[in-house]
Amino acid sequence: LERDLLSQVAAASDEAALETVRVAALGKKGSVSDLLKTLGAMTPDERKVRGPQINGLRDRVQGALAGRREALAEAALEARLAAERVDVTLPLREAPDTRGRIHPISQVMEEITAIFADMGFSVAEGPDIETDELNFTALNFPPGHPAREMHDTFFLAPDAQGKRKVLRTHTSPVQIRTMRAKAPPIRVIIPGRTYRHDSDQTHTPMFHQCEGLVIDKAANIANLKWVLEEFARAFFEVEAVKMRFRPSFFPFTEPSAEVDIQCSRKGGEIRFGEGTDWLEVLGCGMVHPNVLRNCGLDPDEVQGFAFGVGLDRIAMLKYGMPDLRPFFEADVRWLDHYGFRP
Ligand code: PHE
């Protein structure tokens, strides 16, 4: 029996076969268990002889089973290792490009900052939540002035004094902050987020502007035109660009103008520095004497000019993006599509 059992164990080729052998030998009705049961009916003398024999048989079968089980497990592991071995000689699979992309607004802000830095402008900033005083009154929008209505303002809940702060509707309040904080000469640009209650293909409730402000003894309209032309040339990367100054109105500048730049449009493609079409790109003007006075400056001593560019708008124009809404949808495929650098 022993030889038979041990050869069965050795022949078991997997865990299941081995289990069958174990049950046939050591299970409740197994051959070895049957032998063990016979011990009970033996005389003490018989048992003395047969007991160690049968128990020894059981131990050896158990030992053989355990040994075989271990061998099978080891073989299974070897087989798995062999099957899952990495073939380091295989050519590389193309790695997915998981790097982020710079956002067009950040890109345009960087470009503008660099262009104006070359012309001696530094950068100033102010808060998104602004007082009514700085967003409007100090900029020569008297209370109740109709120009306030044109700004589609988001108001915050009034404070204990009944004063309502606003989400700034333009970057111009930082003009006031700058003039109140430092003496002329002033040459700053002011990039930042701005807010108006407006939403369609080319307007989002939060958008971006970049303000420019120059104050000194003799800053004049010719200087303003030169600065804007330099900017447009550098930004749109053209040799020369024609600009058109259309009379306009802003409470904080006088005279005021809206500026168009020359372009051509062929089949939806816009090119700058050529053609006979015009695209509006910014607002500007000479700083209003009232604004200077509101900042403690004497209009007989200093003067200056200001301009305000919609960053989202010029990003759309420069990079040929027809819709503003994806700017704020965080879809990386859209950034990839327009090829922004990582
Ligand atoms: N603040 C104006 C706007 O948002 C733009 C502007 C800035 C105009 C500076 C003139 C001078 O429409």
TrEMBL record:
It is an enzyme of class 6 (ligase). Signal peptide: none annotated. Binds 2 magnesium ions per tetramer. CDD domains: PheRS_alpha_core. It is found in: Cytoplasm. One of its GO terms (molecular function) is ATP binding. The keyword Ligase applies. The keyword Metal-binding applies. GO terms for cellular component: cytoplasm. Mg(2+) binds at E254. Belongs to the class-II aminoacyl-tRNA synthetase family. Phe-tRNA synthetase alpha subunit type 1 subfamily. Tetramer of two alpha and two beta subunits. This is Phenylalanine--tRNA ligase alpha subunit. It comes from Methylobacterium hispanicum. The lineage of its organism: Bacteria, Pseudomonadati, Pseudomonadota, Alphaproteobacteria, Hyphomicrobiales.
